[in-house]
Specification:
15 helices; single chain; phosphoenolpyruvate carboxykinase (ATP); EC 4.1.1.49; alpha/beta
């Protein structure tokens, strides 16, 4: 480079031996490359206007603009929002969250600050709250009462990705864009550590309060917590407001996906939640506390409408805990809550989720539903799918839903390419994906539908004696709904060497909060009122028990389901089976007729009869605990008892 010696220097690219070249030309006579003359002794590129920032921090603040509401405010909402200033709304939100995090042994809630403590330069308001309790305080001052609790409120998936990757060991972005994370030592639910108190008797009030205090103190001791305010139930008349306070970005993103996501306007008017979860899963319960049997405790208090999680980081505890709550709250309103999948064309309801995603139909939901006077509604805002052995060919919808925003739990992936190996069970066989329901292309938004015309109970019969499909009368539908039969096979649990019958009342015994006959009576009433037909579909074995027979082909099951959807199966010719008294079709187009009656597929007819009798006996024994309960009106109880197997 050479200077021409003038005061305001110009830059030109030259070689050293060309310093005497004319100022108007460059090397080899090419025009000299110039910029404009500098001013004020500052050299800069004037090709674009300079950024409006004097420091790097100011530049970073320009990178992110504030979110603006996208849903119009109408009606009474508009009047409400105009009466409150932005500062007043923020103050109300802070007071509400402080109240949620309040210890029961102090007069006021913690001092809360909205925002990430790592970003103090962005200017956060500190608001001291004065939420009072009617409890007599036993501790007036403590270290936790002197500190501020920062809370991150309803963060977006992108923000939660940043938090997880920066602060939570074991969090990675996979090649498909999902967030892979670990749930710690627990990779599944802990049903033996789940307790319900008030009005149930699994836990007394004092024990719940001890655990609540432990969880709240732990959360308040952290530098920051995550707060999600969301909804349950797409039926607006019966919607429930829930607040989830958690310590991990993983948990916050999981619930962001699984609950219904509010609009910015709905958050403005959220107010006090109907139910609150305190997820302190990284912190154990006190083993010396009454009722505790391990370091894990999942406690629900129906009177306080609160849930406490200690000693487990498995996110599914939150999802199923709220499902249990809905199983209590909804029947109190005359609404039937069901562990089911649901899709619509002509509306059907399923007991399980593996057949609920049909490309030719709209998906209402895959797991949890309510049946009210308005029709059917999904309780959740997302799907929680099993990932073990997942492939694009077998489950294209789930495969394609695993992308940015999805949480992948406990999966194994290549350390370099980050490609997920869905076959690998190194961490657990219970690998899962949690994603918003709109990630399914044929999801119906909002997730509501009309009254069902078919109620399909799914069973996986490993004994190989139940028909692929049976049409049920109302009493039979109630009998098999209450029974909730399926079977375990070798390898599903430790110690299982041969098919083992398992009965889960209402196909969700772990979640229901009232007696199973209460739900059955409600189902019977709704099926009668809306003239719905009951079906029992067996997705298990044919031609012999597990290990001898073969699994009924999924293609045949889908043809059967399609025939139910279309109404063609109602027009078929039927015959009655022995023992269980099922009505089974003689012929279904596309399905081999010989498999429709299980006895045809067994070479050893005596073995078939013995196995059938064995299963029937297990049904009888299981149902003995329900024989003294009245189910529904008129003579339905007697009809249901008579609808079981007859030897």
């Amino acid at each position: 480079m050479a200077s021409n010696g003038t005061e305001n220097a110009e830059f030109s690219f030259t070689s050293n031996n060309n310093a005497s070249t004319s100022a108007s030309t460059g090397r080899k006579g090419l025009p000299k490359i110039q910029t404009q003359k500098k001013t004020n002794d500052v050299c800069h590129d004037d090709s674009t206007p300079p950024v409006k920032a004097q420091t790097i921090d100011e530049l970073h603040s320009l990178q992110k603009k504030r979110s603006t509401p996208t849903t119009p405010i109408t009606g009474t909402q508009s009047a409400f929002f105009t009466t409150l200033s932005e500062e007043e709304r923020q103050k109300q939100q802070l007071q509400s969250i402080s109240a949620s995090l309040a210890s029961l042994t102090r007069e006021t809630g913690p001092k809360v600050v909205k925002g990430d403590p790592a970003r103090k330069s962005e200017g956060q308001k500190v608001t001291l709250t004065s939420h009072s309790h009617h409890f007599t305080p036993t501790i007036s001052v403590s270290d936790s009462s002197l500190k501020f609790t920062h809370f991150l409120y309803n963060l977006s998936p992108a923000e939660l990705y940043e938090q997880a990757i920066k602060y939570e060991k074991g969090s990675f972005i996979t090649s498909n864009g999902a967030l892979a994370t670990l749930s710690g030592a627990k990779t599944g639910r802990s049903p033996r550590d789940k307790r319900v108190g008030s009005p149930n008797i699994e836990m007394d009030e004092q024990t719940f309060l001890v655990n609540r205090e432990r969880a709240v103190d732990y959360l308040n001791s952290l530098e920051k917590v995550f707060v999600n305010d969301q909804f349950l139930n797409w039926d607006l008349e019966h919607r429930i407001k829930v607040r989830i306070v958690s310590a991990r970005a993983y948990h916050s993103l999981f619930m962001h996906n699984m609950c219904i996501r509010p609009t910015p306007e709905e958050l403005e008017d959220f107010g006090t939640p109907d139910f609150t979860i305190y997820n302190a899963g990284q912190f154990p319960c006190n083993r010396y506390t009454h009722y505790m049997t391990s370091s894990t405790s999942i406690d629900i208090n129906l009177a306080r409408r609160e849930m406490v999680i200690l000693g487990t980081q498995y996110a599914g505890e939150m999802k199923k805990g709220l499902f249990s709550v809905m199983h209590y709250l909804m029947p109190k309103r005359g609404i039937l809550s069901l562990h089911s999948g649901c899709n619509v064309g002509r509306m059907e309801m399923y007991r399980e989720d593996n057949l609920s995603t049909d490309h030719n139909r709209y998906l209402i939901g895959d797991d949890e539903h309510c049946w009210s006077e308005n029709g059917v509604s999904n309780i959740e805002g997302g799907c929680y799918a099993k990932c073990i052995d997942l492939s694009r060919e077998k489950e294209p919808d789930i495969w394609n839903a695993i992308k940015f925003g999805t949480v992948l739990e406990n999966v194994v992936f290549d350390e370099h390419t980050r490609e997920v190996d869905y076959v690998d069970k190194s961490v657990t066989e219970n690998t899962r994906a949690a994603y918003p329901i709109e990630y399914i292309p044929n999801a119906k938004i909002p997730c509501v539908g009309p009254h069902p015309k078919n109620v399909i109970l799914l069973a996986c019969d490993a004994f190989g004696v139940l028909p692929p499909v049976s049409k049920l009368n109302l009493a039979q539908t109630m009998y098999h709904f209450i029974s909730g039969y399926t079977a375990l096979v070798a390898g599903t649990e430790d110690g299982i060497k041969e098919p083992t019958a398992t009965f889960s009342a209402c196909f969700g015994a772990a979640f229901i909060m009232l007696h199973p006959t209460r739900y059955a009576a409600m189902l019977a009433e709704k099926m009668q009122k809306h003239r719905a037909t009951g079906w029992l579909v067996n997705t298990g074995w044919s031609g012999g028990s597990y290990g001898f027979g073969s699994r009924i082909k999924l293609a045949y099951t889908r043809i059967i389901i399609d025939a139910i959807h279309s109404g063609n199966l109602l027009k078929a010719n039927y015959k009655k089976t022995e023992v269980f008294g099922f009505e089974i079709p003689i012929e279904i187009e596309g399905v081999p007729s010989e498999i429709l009656d299980p006895v045809n597929t067994w070479l050893d007819k005596m073995a078939y009869k013995n196995t059938l009798s064995k299963l029937a006996g297990l049904f009888k024994k299981n149902f003995e605990v329900f024989t003294n309960y009245k189910i529904g009106k008129d003579k339905l109880t007697e009809e249901i008892l008579a609808a079981g197997p007859v030897f």
